[in-house]
Amino acid sequence: MLKDIILKLYNNNDLSDDELKLLIETDDLQAGELLRSLADEVRQKYYGKDVYLRGLIEISSFCKNDCLYCGIRRSNNNAQRYRLSHEQIMSCCENGYQLGFRTFVMQGGEDSFFTDDYLCAIIEEIKSKFPDCAVTLSLGERSEESYRRLKNAGADRYLLRHEAADNALYEKLHPSELSLENRKNCLFTLKKLGYQTGAGFMVGAPFQTTENIISDLRFLQKLQPEMIGIGPFVPHHDTPFHSEKQGSTQLTLRLLSILRLMFPKVLLPATTALGTVDPLGREKGLAAGCNVVMPNLSPVAVRKKYELYDNKICTGEEAAECRGCLERRVSSAGYNIVSKRGDNVDFNN
């Protein structure tokens, strides 16, 4: 029965909630291997063995929000706060360009210091100096006008993980001033404005059920994002969820393969969180359908300060070390890092 469900998904047929539940919860090793191998086949159909680099620049550890799972939440008085200057960000890009990066990802907490004017100036300079590169932003919820201005300045992509598509679960993970409705509205606005849009969720978050995950998959079907980022929940010692169990590697890998079959052309990263919970997590992610890795271009002096969760890997390495390490890991898994923008194939068309 599981084989039939997997083949049904492989052949672009939608699954019922009951079928998705069986697939998500199975511990059948043969079924898991079939799912993985078909996901890898589909990934290679659209992207070959190419793996795209995303140069991550963590621009600020200040955040106005107080999400219960996040190490840089507003009320964590032990968090080390910093902001990168315009010059520091450009230096990261220049270093990254020399190392073969053709996408730069500016990520940070929701920090009002980074106004539209400030960000637009940085984006315009990046696009001017590196016209063959893409700029991705991951800076949280902003107004439609803000998203429009950033897009007009040259931003190509925007990552905004929805974290939980079920309202009851969303409210358990976030403070009352944040709403799932606004989160979803932001994502649909980003799509409307022409961004390559990324959503996603934590796997194994506190209180999460299989039904919650199915809600996530159904929301992604409505949104049809160009990028999907999922990774295991990893607790942080200075949050209310410090003693919660971290998410499962195996469930994360299974969901990555399901996502590849549900969204054949999606850009799907093997995340740092996956590499944190399993030393070979990123390699396993590539074998399960992923085609993106995100090494860190941030200055080494600030990397440990951008601590969303405990035991984050690669916080002490220079950018060149991160890239070299990932190239070896990607090669050992049978894939090839390429120096390309790495757009979603539908956007290329």
Uncertain parts: none
Question: What is the level 1 CATH name?
Answer: Alpha Beta
Q: What pattern of helices and strands is seen along the backbone?
A: HHHEEHEHEHEHHEHEHHHEHHEH
What fold name stands as the CATH topology?
A: TIM Barrel
Helix content: 40-55%
**Rg:** 19 Å
Topology summary:
Blueprint (H helix, E strand, L loop, with lengths): L1 H9 L6 H9 L3 H19 L2 E4 L1 E6 L25 H13 L4 E6 L7 H14 L4 E5 L5 H10 L3 E3 L7 H7 L6 H13 L3 E8 L6 H14 L3 E6 L16 H14 L9 H6 L3 H7 L4 E2 L6 H4 L15 H14 L3 E3 L6 H4 L1
Parallel strand pairs: 1-8, 1-9, 2-3, 3-4, 4-5, 5-6, 6-7
Helix pairs in contact: 1-3, 3-10, 4-5, 5-6
Task: State the main characteristics.
12% strand; 9 strands; TIM Barrel; 349 residues; six-stranded parallel sheet; alpha/beta
